[in-house]
């Protein structure tokens, strides 16, 4: 792999991996390390720049991430983001960080660059941008330290909140907002300015090398052993199986588990895709009732995921033993690891069925640094057709997560499966399906009164959620036209047990993509 010239110090942000993804998009390799490993790495590798991520803690907390101050002694460019900015202020003046509600900001924010301030970080951006903010504290004033004298370079709320500061002579820059996320409308100019113009890095990440690296790295880890890979039919696991099959040959055993929670006609579609991708795929069906029985014991979202995960792990272990496998290859993405709290010190959002199974098998996660849109690009680069590369994501537990507030039963799974199929067909008919990043059709376990055939009915409500995103770390609603909503509603309420249809376009955050 090419030399890594940018170090990202992970301070607990949900967006730390997004910084790395954005740098890859711009053409630069980077690495992520926790604070306690950063100093030694800098000494050994001499990077050209350091980025301090955001984080959920407050710099004045006793258990806040401890960044070694010695990183400043190397005189290499530093970019502090959110928590990283607060830390740069706090080490110079402990009174400079707000602890009051006026400093809080969650969501979109209009950033205004200070007039007369020519910052290298904001070159090419004009007078301001719309950005994404997520912080409980903020910097009250630009601190004046013995070595670093900062000046304010951007503000929001009519100058009341400091959004950026810098000490240009020391090449230290800081922003309170998140330049790495899609909602910050700078076209990645800020990160590019820092890495290319301030740090002086040269582009060394090329998409054509990705597939080769994934194959070679996995082969190196596996050695002469055998691995299994569960193929869900989604983009991630299917693309990974297609990449690794020609590299590993008989050392890789691919299979799919019919959990009972799959979409209509899913197994047949997956078999067709696998055949076209030259994946030798085995279908395992005998555990379907066990999944339904186990998950149906609870209506709590995390408990459902945990019960699904337990049965899923049992099936994996049984398959591994039958093949004599020592390793399991997972199509786990960066998003999964972040939401499950498995990356750095990021907070747990939801348990993922395929993260940290602890089955006594060695896990290999070749896609753990990548996001959904990147894997779609791999699918296209590998020659997989648009049926795969353009398919919408589907959670591992599938339709089990789309029955909300009532116990899962075979009858309800069939009802949600049919509703999901009907909504999908309507969206395809109106040529909207491929414009939507993900569509969720969920049964809400709240019965309401309705009228059908001049008689009273008491039935289920359904929610239709359509969103658009690049990396699934943040999403925004994809608003459907009125006539499409009317067609979906009239189609779904034809079912005797469906009374109402709601539409949900809430952003993430605060909502997650799925309801559970």
From TrEMBL:
Domain GMPS ATP-PPase intervals: 205-391
Annotated binding of ATP, by residue: 232-238
Entry keywords, A to Z: ATP-binding, Glutamine amidotransferase, GMP biosynthesis, Ligase, Nucleotide-binding, Purine biosynthesis
UniProt organism field: Candidatus Nomurabacteria bacterium RIFCSPHIGHO2_01_FULL_40_24b
Gene3D superfamilies: 3.30.300.10, 3.40.50.880, HUPs
GO terms, molecular function: ATP binding; GMP synthase activity
This protein's pathway: Purine metabolism; GMP biosynthesis; GMP from XMP (L-Gln route): step 1/1
Domain of life: Bacteria
Cited InterPro entries: Class_I_gatase-like, GATASE, GMP_synth_C, GMP_synth_GATase, GMPS_ATP_PPase_dom, NAD/GMP_synthase, Rossmann-like_a/b/a_fold
This enzyme's EC code(s): 6.3.5.2
SUPFAM superfamilies: Adenine nucleotide alpha hydrolases-like, Class I glutamine amidotransferase-like, GMP synthetase C-terminal dimerisation domain
Entry keyword annotation includes ATP-binding: yes
Protein name, entry field: GMP synthase (glutamine-hydrolyzing)
Chain's role: Catalyzes the synthesis of GMP from XMP.
A GO cellular component entry from the record: cytosol
KW Lyase (keyword) present: no
